[in-house]
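Lab notebook, entry 519. We have the chain sequence and a SMILES string for pyridoxal-5'-phosphate, and the next step in the workflow is to get a structural model of the bound complex before anyone spends time on docking refinements. Request logged below.

Task: model protein plus pyridoxal-5'-phosphate, output structure tokens.
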Amino acid sequence: MSSASEPSELGDLSPEELRRRGYSAIDWIVELLASSRDLPVLARTRPGDLLAALPLQGPEEPQDWEQTLADLNDLILPGITHWNHPRFFAYFANTGSVPGIIGATLATALNPNSMLWRTSPAATELEQRVLEWLAGWLGLPTSLFGIINDTASVSTLCALAAARQLVPGYSSQEGMGSLAAPLRLYASEQAHSSIDKAALLLGLGTASVRKIPTRADYSMDPHALEAAIVSDLAAGEIPFCVVATAGTTSTTSIDPLEKIATLCARFDLWLHVDAAYGGAAAVVPDMRPRFRGWERADSIVVNPHKWLFTPMCCSVLYTRRPDDLRAAFSLVPEYLRSDVGDDRSEAQGDDADGLGAAPVDFMNYGIQLGRPFRALKLWMVMNAYGRAGIEQRLRHHMQLAARFASWVDEHPDFERLAPTPLSTVCFRYRPGAGRGTGDGTDLAPVPQDPHAAANEELMARVNRGGQIFLSHTRLRGRLALRLAIGNLRTTAADVQHAWQTLLDTRPPVATRGTGGVAS
Ligand SMILES: Cc1ncc(COP(=O)(O)O)c(C=O)c1O
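Result returned:
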């Protein structure tokens, strides 16, 4: 067919349309961020609302942009839970910061795929360089190998695959069948469920994960860890890895990394540090002592999409053993060989100054082949605030959390259920708790929680109100509310607002029938 017969309406929208739609989309984003405090944090829609509102079939003909924008406002926006809301205090926050939004948009416009160095050299090399910067900001050796994955769950899965690769006798070809005894992996009972999921996916089985008891502050008990390793070795099993957490999901406790690193060295185990949320705090130099020992880890995960103001998805996996990571994942079919017909790779050899080093093909260090340009948004975030700006923001969040914790401690009807080492406060409503009863470290486990219903009710009411969004956890049998500060736009007034909302929303005195009940 001759090109002359190509209909003019084929192909993409015109540059004029890009300008028109793009400018209105930017205006829309500006409006959204400016008005986010007025939106309910938690979506108020019911299951199926959007499904019922959208047609069953996709449009046969092009739809009008104005109508699409109107549908975005009328149909989709009401069903959004606003993670960008300054009063999003549930789970761990992530922020669509201005540089992050711009970076993600520009990355989509460029749309490179950094699976191989040559499929986008700049995307690969920017990823290498920003991860060196970030390592430096975290007080980690900049010689660590870093790679950006989508989530911490995937980063941890990759790290554990690398750890398994090192087990004597393990063969990638034979898989788990190559081992005569079961593998054992150690993590605290407070570790994130992604560890169990990784064990599940790697074919180890969740029973391979030994859940190590925690100390009063919810950090891993290193003596119990040592005992578990010794006992498994005596039983002929194969300990291969310890996952320590720096910032657990429930309470943000930090495991004793130095002691755990020493145990790992003694028993020749891979140490993976899950610092998905908490790792960001190491940008603040005074916080570094809490992380001492993580520089000895074999792998570390830190999520810029949690507390480093970078939009989803951006999880960094660091390792000082890139060859082992590569051994776990490298599988190069003919059609992906970049040494055939490309003389640029050959021209470069290993080079101590890093400038002429052999190019990295990131596809060899993880699960996915195609890789979006996630480094661009991280680079833009780092450039926009600078290390000092990020340090100030993190410090501020920790100060706000400490302030909230002090209000809880001082109030006779509330109590704290865990220490607050970072920016998350675990507390509960307990009428008659008394003032300043401590940080929860003295509370023994309870089989039943007489205050659970009142706290559930309080959380449900608060979240329904739309002004703030909190989540919960369970600590030594007690239902705990969590206020996690981490959104870039959260101010002191927002935290004050959260406290006032809790005070105003407490169940009325008549139904506060739990006063004075211990536990
Ligand atoms: C300590 C910790 N590790 C891992 C994860 C999983 O993170 P992702 O959603 O990036 O997989 C979380 C999520 O909150 C977490 O808190």
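Notes for the group: The mean pLDDT is 93. Worth checking against the assay data. The chain has two domains: 112-372, 383-511.
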